[in-house]
From TrEMBL:
Residues 34-88 form the HTH cro/C1-type domain. InterPro entries: Cro/C1-type_HTH (IPR001387), Lambda_DNA-bd_dom_sf (IPR010982), MLTR_LBD (IPR041413). SMART domains: HTH_XRE. Pfam families: HTH_31, MLTR_LBD. Coiled coil: none annotated. It comes from the Bacteria. This is Helix-turn-helix transcriptional regulator. Gene3D superfamilies: 3.30.450.180, lambda repressor-like DNA-binding domains. The lineage of its organism: Bacteria, Bacillati, Actinomycetota, Actinomycetes, Kitasatosporales.
Amino acid sequence: MIPATVDVTTELAGFLRTRRERLDPQDFGLPARRQARRTPGLRREEVAELAGISTDYIVRLEQARGLRPSAQVVEALAGALRLTPDERAHLFALARQRPRSADKLATAAEPLLAQLVADLSPLPAMLMNHRYDILARNSEMAKLLPHLDTLPPQQRNAMWLCLMHPRARDFYVDRERVVREGIAHLRTAWAAHPQDQALTGLIAQCLAHDQEFARLWAERDVKASGRGRKTLRHPDAGEITVHFETLTPLQDPDQLLVIYRAADDESQSALDRLHTR
């Protein structure tokens, strides 16, 4: 019977124990004399040695004795137990710790996601990473954001475009709200990816060259908006109001799929005219 509430200490103990017991000692090259075992998997002292922590600490964790391991200990246990990415995330959640972001950051579109962006036509869609670099876009989005084609790849960033491109500064009717929401996302991404020098450099550049960004950054907002409405001033089609939705793939949480839909008949007509040009 499932209890009404989750006892995270007990769940953490059971999760560690089952992950330990499923491991094959032969995969770790343990000496033959250590293979005679009454229980499956690795012994607690072997996990402790692999993780670089004490056996007593492992025992107390598996006995649900109220410990809250640090993020460093959780990372060490995840490595020792050879957890999958999903299992690692679950272990961090049970320990009420925040996982360290992976060292490999998304700098290119995952091929299947890039294909999905193309398949979403005629809806304008694009794929961005955590720092708002635009990694892929379909033809409808390319026509809706015409300034992108004039930029080198390293400047195809939604925040840079909004703040720095002279022809894009008036692109959004409610510019301050768009910038505020973008800054809230960037601050959250900055805290989650402290090793991302490109993100740090983007923020530093915006702080140095845009007073509006500096003012809003100082407010330290972190509640980003993944769904909403915005009105664009398109140089050829006039004002277009869209609903936007931002989706995060489970397999690639640092890649953001953004989809636009016309908010009214006039905006749909404008999108249709752009599509047929």
